[in-house]
Amino acid sequence: MGERVIVVGGVAAGMSAASKARRMNSELELVVYERSGYVSYGACGFPYAIKGEIPQVRDVVVRTPEQFAKQGIKVHVGHEVLAVDPATKSVLVRRPDGSEFRDQWDQLVLTTGGVSIRPPLPGLDLPGIFTLRTVEDALAIREWIETKKPQRGVIVGGGYIGLEMAEALAAYGIGIALIERLPQVLPNLDHEIAAHVQAELERQHVSVWLEHAVEGFAGDTNGVREVIAGGQHIPADIVILSVGIRPGVGLAREAGIALGPTGAIAVDDHQRTNVPGIWAAGDVAEALHRVTGRPAWIPLGTTANKQGRVAGENVGGGNATFKGIVGTAVVKAFDYEAASSGLSEARARAEGYTVEAVSATASSRAHYMPGHQPIHVKLVYEAETRRLLGGQMVGSEGVAKRIDVIAAALHNGWTVDELGELDLSYAPPFAPVWDPVLVAANLARR
Amino acid sequence: MGERVIVVGGVAAGMSAASKARRMNSELELVVYERSGYVSYGACGFPYAIKGEIPQVRDVVVRTPEQFAKQGIKVHVGHEVLAVDPATKSVLVRRPDGSEFRDQWDQLVLTTGGVSIRPPLPGLDLPGIFTLRTVEDALAIREWIETKKPQRGVIVGGGYIGLEMAEALAAYGIGIALIERLPQVLPNLDHEIAAHVQAELERQHVSVWLEHAVEGFAGDTNGVREVIAGGQHIPADIVILSVGIRPGVGLAREAGIALGPTGAIAVDDHQRTNVPGIWAAGDVAEALHRVTGRPAWIPLGTTANKQGRVAGENVGGGNATFKGIVGTAVVKAFDYEAASSGLSEARARAEGYTVEAVSATASSRAHYMPGHQPIHVKLVYEAETRRLLGGQMVGSEGVAKRIDVIAAALHNGWTVDELGELDLSYAPPFAPVWDPVLVAANLARR
């Protein structure tokens, strides 16, 4: 029998780690404990499953415990790990029936993910107020919509999930108000870029309340009735609380595993924690940000899958390294796409860089093609070295994958001038002869 | 008065050069001679103008001679340059009325473009047989369609223009046969990738005749009636001859300007020819291919615009350089997108590389999203160094701009492994969590 490997958390990073470890080493004994009732699901699909664009919430599940069992991976859902003890190399686990047991590991992979932030506000536990993180959350939201037929929805938080959920609820004809504490939606973007997204929300009849902090919720046992924010009482029969997540580091901290400056678990490029034999990956862990050269915590499904695979390869006896992130992300908000990679101008200044920035608006297709749409591109670069620090892009088509060329430039530390020299694809239905990315980069050249 | 600059050819490269030279130096005297009746047009838009997707052929014209005149650029359409004499720094020009004159230059920019190949076949001059290169060609094709209402069209040549014109004619309900001398369409792609495009053509009711050489055309003064190919008589009331172009180097060759190994004008990275004071750019010139490190002739609008701008900047007293191409191209063929960058496997082997290749089929969106489509990706890399040599991609969505990340990798000489480490964008409507490019790159890793 090979070593016994315990994986705590069975979503993106955890199941990637288990699967890769299995492919590397058929001798390993692989056990996964997952607190919720599901593993191996694409959490990013939940808004589309709630919207009904994906028929069933369960359609986002990639593989079931039974399918993993056939690969020799024992998956225990409904099993919460309560404690990790590095000294005895054991975990304390609570079964669905409430009973507890200890299990031993030779290697431990912590993929406990992120936890939805639930600010301690009056009325927070009223029925009809939801966060969205698990299959159970998504099922509950969809059931609430189908049974209660809410007319007025409030989204608290204008980040990715907030925008996606605004679109999802609006598809039911629910009138949406979006409340954001900050003076803009999508705080990862610079304000003037985010303003384009806000305009799209308003075109879609979403009422956007910026600089409003939620003070509480009112209602009764039938459900939430209103959201109180900035002294205003905003009617609501469904509330989505999407004010962010924090890394789920409770187990790790109690076990003495070192956290990094971001508050997530510190890992090296092999996904090792500071405790030998304990690995971490996914939303619970930091990642090297290649632009700043420092650890960052940007919880995304792509990073979780990659880190999980690296951890799994190393658990299985390999020597894989994770080369880091540049913070690439894209979100669909109704008919709009907003993408970014690297640092915003605001963030770059906060990080201490001396920054220059250029903005261009160019067409998604050749100017003479019907259906062409404006794409707004912003590039941020270091004044002296001209090294690209970040890029942002918004528009109603051609944005999501166009950001990737900026991600490539950031990954490799190119200057904005090098970005402008690329031989990018062109055909009238897909791009103008000068791609919007090149238009922006060439503005920086002057 | 500043120096007198003559630009020969007023399409993409020529007008880019003239405009950039003007912005650099307001003292220059700038004169453009263009043989056809139009300048500054997006020739790549012609198929869409013929199709009717763009209302009028003239809509692809970016700026008119009158508009250039306001910038102080004198544009003479219908003026053909007959000879270039470096010894006297003069050109011989024929006016629209047939009279000729000499004009003097201090600097000369040759942007004479490409010339449609017209193989010397019997019946080639029958009415209804067209090549597509100029505004006049596009107008003539559209007029033929509107007045003659052809029922059966034959496309000769399965390259980019052939496929675009198949789509354009099919939009009128014209039944299309496509005849290609080679055993595949899109010879820049490897055969198994091109086969996906061929399947799409056949789904669209295009009859594809591979390995058939056209032997001639039959008809009468009313027009072409049939195309003879491989002994078959194929009925046709319109024929598009799209068997390629050659560089329009006649003037340059007669003037003693050096051509390169490809037969196009040899230029350095400043767009200088071997004759001081004479520059060349666009489809008439070579470009450094960054993958092979050697000059290549890949005539495309993007390269023409970039080279023209570099030439113009240098003509205007600047010191610009063109960093070269990687051969990125994309074509829309009905509902399909086919893109490539760098070398195909066949081409790489022909160039003498020891090659490995991987192919993957992955989804354009998250697997659970409705409407997701397969994308077929092929990556070609050097066996020993693992340096990426090329990438190809086909599918019905998400291909055109996805190729750009491969173009970036090729531009910089990355290995296939480095390509696989990129932090690419992800959201369920736009990509799976492992982007198709990463899926393919990771296959190469094993």
From TrEMBL, chains A, B:
<keyword id="KW-0285">Flavoprotein</keyword>
<dbReference type="Pfam" id="PF02852">
    <property type="entry name" value="Pyr_redox_dim"/>
</dbReference>
<dbReference type="GO" id="GO:0016491">
    <property type="term" value="F:oxidoreductase activity"/>
</dbReference>
<keyword id="KW-0676">Redox-active center</keyword>
<dbReference type="InterPro" id="IPR023753">
    <property type="entry name" value="FAD/NAD-binding_dom"/>
</dbReference>
<dbReference type="InterPro" id="IPR050260">
    <property type="entry name" value="FAD-bd_OxRdtase"/>
</dbReference>
<dbReference type="InterPro" id="IPR036188">
    <property type="entry name" value="FAD/NAD-bd_sf"/>
</dbReference>
<keyword id="KW-0274">FAD</keyword>
<feature type="domain" description="FAD/NAD(P)-binding">
    <location>
        <begin position="4"/>
        <end position="295"/>
    </location>
</feature>
<dbReference type="InterPro" id="IPR016156">
    <property type="entry name" value="FAD/NAD-linked_Rdtase_dimer_sf"/>
</dbReference>
<feature type="domain" description="Pyridine nucleotide-disulphide oxidoreductase dimerisation">
    <location>
        <begin position="330"/>
        <end position="432"/>
    </location>
</feature>
<dbReference type="Pfam" id="PF07992">
    <property type="entry name" value="Pyr_redox_2"/>
</dbReference>
<protein>
    <submittedName>
        <fullName>NADH oxidase</fullName>
    </submittedName>
</protein>
<comment type="similarity">
    <text>Belongs to the class-III pyridine nucleotide-disulfide oxidoreductase family.</text>
</comment>
<dbReference type="InterPro" id="IPR004099">
    <property type="entry name" value="Pyr_nucl-diS_OxRdtase_dimer"/>
</dbReference>
<keyword id="KW-0560">Oxidoreductase</keyword>
